[in-house]
């Protein structure tokens, strides 16, 4: 197994997560199996401690990272079929959960007591962190039948868990008091995307809308706004067209402009959107009372090939962190690649600017830690963006096989081979 | 009807499509990729295609009337045909994964419509994978009855996840069923019968119908007699195992 060459789908995009505290006390980047954390308060790399194993802590590509809403926990998970829960105080791994299948997404309940993760077969599992034992058994929570779950998210009031999949679906499920018995009550399905759903984020609750509004991004090059109580589609923003990436008659078959990540700032009144092929981000205004999305502006990264693969920020600093990169470049000896950039003034208080390396929080030291190197080769990042795009395409887009190919595919399918 | 004379796939004596022209593989793998169109959401199901006499204008579902019965894995459609006349005011649909079998049911319905003007207008069939696309066809609480008659048994333990009744799929069925809606299951495979019953018993949103309720429900009698599979089992003198449950509001929100 180990020596087998990696398939294209096994290329993983670089990920970023930012501690939710105002001061952004830590920033984490995951690229390939490597997890790197920079402690902004200390001004140095955090050293992660995991009793159970040697470095790297994950044995295969990391597919999901996130901080708990209260900032006390951090979770990393991925293709090595483990979910690791870290204390952000000590950066010690407090629990390693084994999954039967590869892990595609994680979420932490708002009170920090439950970690949920989705596996490659569309099953969502839940782990009770109380009491915090080293070896925890997950219980099945819900399932998307034979789909790949791309994103998991709790609603701001904690009542619902949302799961998005490659079959264009977003499911909103009541998160029960005793989730270890499963989550059986479906509140709604948000249906309207015409390609895989890639990312979810919330516009925080307000008086007008206690549940909060949901925004989702998709392979159909749109960002959509939803009422999760009813599943009603409130608005659709053709971000790729609006950002000038696609002609308005652009064909749906063209998958070059999938929305890959979303991040809400100012409680969601602004939504930062990463789109494949866009060297920068699109900022959307979300108007809660009229329930509409509109493009505020496009912030471009000039001077280098920077197509963000993941976004993050803390609640109110006005800095949007972006990473681009890939676990490995197929056909190249390059190890993993990661590049971090920051846009300041994202909260609209000042003009938004893409910060130069020397002026980003943590400076060169942070970049060395998170990127693995301070210097970057521009060409490699162009290739990285292409590799990430191809991997996403292969993993999530439905292929239409002509019938003669279908028979062939059946004969050569891997799961059949394994049996014999 | 001159049309049936030139069409060899239609039987001269009955005017119905001949099954031998619609033979298909015995089993389909519900896990394989889809090759059929799927509506993006229930509001995009084109009722005028399914029920042309009741919805003459093309376009989206008239909000006044919606499909209320779903026969999941309907096979050759025998149950739907019986239900169509028993509940002439109710819209019903069969969901079937196999292409040829779906085509057969379509032909069967259109022949019946031609032979019996004004009847069978409330019944239709769609080719789809019910295990993936139920929420694309029905809204929350839209259905009053769901049928799972003689589903494929998938004996091997590792294939249990292919079964159409499973703890997770019941969450979706509970979602599309209205409060008080009924789920009907029957099989001639004892092990599968036990499995379906225990899945339903263990689910917080279903409760079994009482003996009295079962007797009073005219549909229960059809379970073993109306479908092709049921008739085959009856001919061979086989035993059947049924489980009929009602969708309830869970007593404890937490469960
Ligand atoms: C044994 S037959 C029973 C047919 C019919 N209910 C009867 O009683 O005669 C089971 C049927 O379910 C269909 N089926 C299996 N999995 C399905 C799925 N996921 N979605 C729709 N139909 C399915 C099969 O193609 C087959 O026609």
Automatic annotation (TrEMBL), chain A:
According to UniProt, this protein's pathway is: tRNA modification; N(7)-methylguanine-tRNA biosynthesis
Q: Which GO terms describe its cellular component?
A: nucleus
Q: What InterPro entries does the annotation carry?
A: Trm82 (IPR028884), WD40/YVTN_repeat-like_dom_sf (IPR015943), WD40_repeat_CS (IPR019775), WD40_repeat_dom_sf (IPR036322), WD40_rpt (IPR001680)
Taxonomically, the superkingdom here is Eukaryota
Question: WD repeats: which residues?
Answer: 55-96, 190-236
Q: Does the keyword Nucleus apply?
A: yes
Q: Where in the cell is it found?
A: Nucleus
Broad class of the protein's primary localization: nucleus
Q: Which UniProt keywords apply?
A: Nucleus, Repeat, tRNA processing, WD repeat
GO biological process annotation, one example: tRNA (guanine-N7)-methylation
Query: Which Pfam families does the protein's record reference?
Result: WD40
Entry function = Required for the formation of N(7)-methylguanine at position 46 (m7G46) in tRNA. In the complex, it is required to stabilize and induce conformational changes of the catalytic subunit.
What protein family is recorded?
Answer: Belongs to the WD repeat TRM82 family.
What is said about its interaction partners and assembly? Forms a heterodimer with the catalytic subunit.
Q: HAMAP family this protein is in?
A: TRM82
Put simply, this protein is called tRNA (guanine-N(7)-)-methyltransferase non-catalytic subunit
Q: Which organism is it from?
A: Flemingia macrophylla
UniProtKB/TrEMBL annotation, chain B:
**Catalytic site:** 152
Q: Which domain of life is it from?
A: Eukaryota
Q: What class of enzyme is it?
A: transferase
Q: Which reaction(s) does its UniProt entry say it catalyses?
A: guanosine(46) in tRNA + S-adenosyl-L-methionine = N(7)-methylguanosine(46) in tRNA + S-adenosyl-L-homocysteine
Q: Name one GO cellular component term.
A: nucleus
Q: Indicate where this protein is primarily found.
A: nucleus
Q: Where does it live in the cell?
A: Nucleus
Named from the GO MF annotations, one term is: tRNA (guanine(46)-N7)-methyltransferase activity
Question: EC number(s)?
Answer: 2.1.1.33
Q: Which PROSITE patterns match?
A: SAM_MT_TRMB
Task: Tell me the pathway.
Answer: tRNA modification; N(7)-methylguanine-tRNA biosynthesis
Q: List the InterPro entries hit by this protein, alphabetically.
A: SAM-dependent_MTases_sf (IPR029063), Trm8_euk (IPR025763), tRNA_(Gua-N-7)_MeTrfase_Trmb (IPR003358)
What residues bind S-adenosyl-L-methionine, as annotated? Answer: 73, 96-97, 129-130, 149, 227-229
Q: Which UniProt keywords are given for this protein, alphabetically ordered?
A: Methyltransferase, Nucleus, RNA-binding, S-adenosyl-L-methionine, Transferase, tRNA processing, tRNA-binding
Q: Which PANTHER family match?
A: 3-DEOXY-D-MANNO-OCTULOSONIC-ACID TRANSFERASE/TRNA GUANINE-N 7 - -METHYLTRANSFERASE, TRNA (GUANINE-N(7)-)-METHYLTRANSFERASE
User: Which family, according to UniProt?
Assistant: Belongs to the class I-like SAM-binding methyltransferase superfamily. TrmB family.
Known role: Catalyzes the formation of N(7)-methylguanine at position 46 (m7G46) in tRNA.
Query: Can you say what this protein is called?
Result: tRNA (guanine-N(7)-)-methyltransferase
Q: Which organism is it from?
A: Flemingia macrophylla
